[in-house]
Design a protein that fits this description.
CATH superfamily of the largest domain: P-loop containing nucleotide triphosphate hydrolases
Bound molecules: adenosine-5'-triphosphate, magnesium ion
Largest sheet: 7 strands, mixed
Number of strands: 14
Helix content: 25-40%
CATH architecture of the largest domain: 3-Layer(aba) Sandwich
Strand content: 25-35%
Structural class: alpha/beta
Length: about 290
């Protein structure tokens, strides 16, 4: 028997508690997340929409997981401005599993206080060792009431089996999008560049930074020029990422941000950003800091 389609409104309205959505790239995860959020809002419920996709994000900038509070159907019009962020520092979901899982768990914990429904949209990394580990440990920490698996033809069965066997997860499978064209890699790069550009709106500010404000901390004798154009998470003292910053070295080290209210420290990411094109280059922090592979 086939999986039910996404248009089943009764099924959508039945979602409650913490709902985690999994599926391959372009399967319709974000579309389903929006539908679930909308159905709950129509019923007068408060929704926390958590976006853990790092590359083509809906909420907040790339390299971060973000939370958006939705209190009325009108709030669905723009999901891009995050109310809360956790910095992961990469656009590669296959690396940085710890940071992703910790960030999402922290946002879910925050959301539990107020939300009637918490919807977690995720990246399309669902296969192989990395995909299974990422989703398994996310579910382990987040303890979803329901996992919604959006699949085309049984491709999620290994992951679904694992979530059921080891976590007794309650999994609902739904039929994936068979219509719309998948986004090409070039389109994904363009979407990401636009989202990075939106994270650095004019007028930008430049703040001189001390080498002692970083996490991870810089080794003795570190040449600060190596941080030029690296992305950082601008952090407060409560583990929250306030916004993204970009480092600039020109005899002194500065951070370029849209604001520094409450800035306590800077988390170094693993991405260099071109300020003209907003295209990224991946950086290995071990190599950057210690010259190690
Ligand atoms: N049930 C559906 N029927 C027809 N088209 C759909 C359906 N669900 C999604 N789409 C279309 O498919 C495309 C991909 O959908 P969506 O962005 O929701 O997928 P995704 O799994 O979140 O993708 P990504 O891996 O990029 O996060 C979009 O163009 C969307 O409009
Ligand atoms: Mg998506």
């Amino acid at each position: 028997m086939g999986d039910p389609a996404l248009g089943d409104t009764e099924l959508l309205s039945s979602a409650e508690g913490v709902v985690m959505i999994i599926g391959a790239p372009d399967s319709g995860k974000t579309t389903l997340a929006r539908k679930l959020a909308d159905a709950a809002l129509q019923d007068g419920r408060t929704v926390a929409y958590i976006d853990s996709d790092l590359a083509c994000t809906t909420v907040g900038p790339p390299t971060c997981v973000g939370l958006k509070w939705l209190r009325s159907p009108a709030d669905m019009a723009d999901l891009t401005q995050a109310d809360d962020l956790r910095f992961v520092g990469s656009i590669r979901p296959d690396r940085f599993i710890l940071q992703q899982v910790a960030g999402v768990a922290s946002l879910v914990e925050t959301a539990r206080t107020e939300a009637d429904l918490i919807v977690i949209d995720t990246s399309g990394t669902v296969s192989g060792v990395v995909g299974q580990r990422l989703k398994y440990h996310k579910a382990e920490l987040v303890r979803p009431d329901t996992v919604w698996a959006v699949q085309r033809g049984g491709e999620l069965e290994p992951l679904v089996g694992l979530l059921r066997r080891f976590l007794s997860a309650n999994v609902v499978t739904v039929a994936a999008n068979r219509g719309g064209l998948p986004m090409s890699p070039e389109e994904r790069v363009d979407v990401r560049a636009a989202r990075f550009a939106a994270a650095f709106p004019a007028p930008l500010q430049r703040w001189r930074v001390l080498p002692t404000v970083f996490a991870p901390s810089l080794p003795a004798g570190f040449d600060l020029v190596r941080l030029h154009r690296m992305i950082v998470g601008v952090h407060d003292r409560q583990g929250r990422c306030l916004c993204l910053g970009m480092l600039e070295y020109d005899e002194v080290l500065r951070v370029i941000t849209s604001g520094n209210q409450g800035m306590a420290g800077l988390q170094i990411g693993s991405v260099r950003l071109d300020p003209e094109t907003f295209r990224t280059t991946s950086v290995r922090l071990n190599e950057l800091m210690f010259g190690l592979g």
